[in-house]
From TrEMBL:
Binds 1 FAD per subunit. Residues 6-361 form the FAD dependent oxidoreductase domain. FAD binds at residues 6-36. The gene is solA. Monomer. The modification S-8alpha-FAD cysteine is found at C315. PROSITE patterns: 3_HYDROXYISOBUT_DH (PS00895). This is Monomeric sarcosine oxidase. Belongs to the MSOX/MTOX family. MSOX subfamily. InterPro entries: 3-OH-isobutyrate_DH-rel_CS (IPR002204), FAD-dep_OxRdtase (IPR006076), FAD/NAD-bd_sf (IPR036188), MTOX (IPR045170), SoxA_mon (IPR006281). GO terms for cellular component: cytoplasm.
Length: 387
């Protein structure tokens, strides 16, 4: 008997919703299975905003994927009429030799991306909310900005359904196994067969993809909203860029303009170093000492921002040891199963291109996009306490 579906997508968060949309648009029969409801806040794709940028300090190898992601984000807005991207400009701030500034500059120069370098004086004059030290500089990129994650996921789910996908919510996958030339996928409600399975489990990767050999650490991250002293006027997106700011110790803080109106504040967060957690044990309460710590840290850099604390929301990173993604065919079941995980706190800006890549891998067995950086084989031999 032929399998009931061409492709099953496990997880309809950022990556899975994009995969479902791209697959369905190619005319194949898709089933999406999601543990929670559509567009929920219990994974990694909520919180109102995500930074997007092209002069990528993490590695120039990401740039071609970003160029494609920008095109696909535009298409997504056009096709669904949703408000997704606001290109308000972005600053990478730090000392000239910091990873944030030097890395961004390297990508900008290697890929000939439009950018400006600003010294501390120029930075203070042009963006008066910021008070950098005299030895700090910034790379300014006009094409950087922010994406709305909930609208992105909703848009991909909408397109998937428009193209005929079946999406089941509140139906977690309990296990799957190879079956004939494809897979058999079990939930509490049913058992489904498909030729292909794509696993996009976010922070549930350690339990669902233990066999892929990727050492993923799930981290608890906090997003903070503050109402600036003197109001949000200078923080409006027409005047204020997104920013990533690295200090002498390598600590990075990042933030957004005030996009939710005059009394809903502006969002800010530390980039790295969350406490280790699991999706089941994460402490979702944001504590006073945590709010005080970020407010004190911001004081010398954005003096008016930590006015009144509005709210704090937790989210999870799924971090690999080198902070690069994992996107590949499953090492043990390469024909039938594709995996996408370990997005290490910087995956959202890639969501639509990851959807395209996953559709390529599942349907064609390969992709023209450069993804060798994301091969899980790079961790081989490093598991179980190896070096
Ligand atoms: C605080 C914070 C700030 C961030 N900032 C940025 C940023 O500025 N720029 C940027 O590019 N990226 C950023 N990121 C990273 C980005 O948001 C993530 O990389 C991306 O959202 C990950 O998407 P995902 O699909 O892997 O995970 P998710 O969106 O969490 O999706 C995984 C899905 O799988 C489902 N699932 C799990 N187990 C099962 C099961 N057994 N059966 C069925 N479904 C299951 C889950 O319910 C979930 O819906 C940030 C992340 C956080 C937390």
């Amino acid at each position: 008997m032929a399998p009931a579906y061409d492709v099953i997508v496990l997880g309809l968060g950022g990556m899975g919703s994009a995969a479902a949309a791209h697959l369905a648009a190619r005319g194949v029969k898709v089933l999406g299975l999601e543990k929670f409801g559509p567009v929920h806040n219990r994974g990694s794709s909520h919180g109102g905003s995500r930074i997007t940028r092209q002069s990528y300090f993490e590695d120039p190898a990401y740039v071609p994927l970003l160029l494609r992601a920008y095109e696909l984000y535009e298409e997504l807005e056009r096709e669904t009429g949703r408000d997704i991207a606001t290109l308000c400009g972005g600053l990478m701030i730090g000392r000239p030799d910091s990873r944030t500034v030097a890395g961004a500059r390297r990508s900008a120069e290697q890929w000939d991306l439009p950018h400006e370098m600003l010294d501390a004086e120029q930075l203070r004059r042009r963006f008066p909310t910021l008070t950098p030290a005299d030895d700090e500089v910034a790379l300014y990129e006009a094409r950087a900005g922010l994406l709305r994650p909930e609208n992105t996921v909703a848009a991909h789910l909408q397109l998937a359904v428009r193209h005929g996908a079946s999406l089941h919510y509140e139906e977690p996958v309990t296990r799957w196994e190879p079956y004939r030339d494809g897979v058999r996928v079990h939930t509490r409600e049913d058992v489904y067969t498909a030729s292909r399975l794509i696993i996009c489990p976010g922070a549930w990767a350690p339990e669902l993809l233990a066999d892929v050999g990727v050492p993923i650490t799930v981290e608890r991250k906090i997003m903070y909203w503050f109402q600036p002293r003197g109001g949000t006027g200078p923080y409006r997106p027409e005047r204020h860029p997104v920013y990533v700011w690295e200090d002498r110790e390598g600590i990075q803080v990042y933030g957004f303009p005030a996009i939710d109106g005059p009394d809903r504040g502006a969002k800010v967060a530390f980039f790295r170093d969350g406490g280790v957690c699991t999706p089941e044990t994460i402490d979702r309460t944001v504590h006073d000492h945590e709010i005080r710590a970020i407010a004190d840290y911001l004081g010398p850099r954005l003096p008016t921002l930590p006015g009144t604390f509005i709210k704090g929301v937790t989210c999870m990173y799924s971090t690999t040891p080198d902070e690069h993604f994992v996107i590949a065919r499953h090492p043990e079941h390469p024909e039938a199963v594709t995996v996408a995980c370990g997005f290490s706190g910087h995956g959202f800006k890639f969501v639509p291109v990851v959807g395209e890549i996953l559709a390529d891998l599942a349907l064609e067995g390969g992709t023209p996009h450069p993804i060798s950086l994301f091969d899980p084989a790079r961790f081989a031999g490093k598991l179980n306490g190896g070096s």
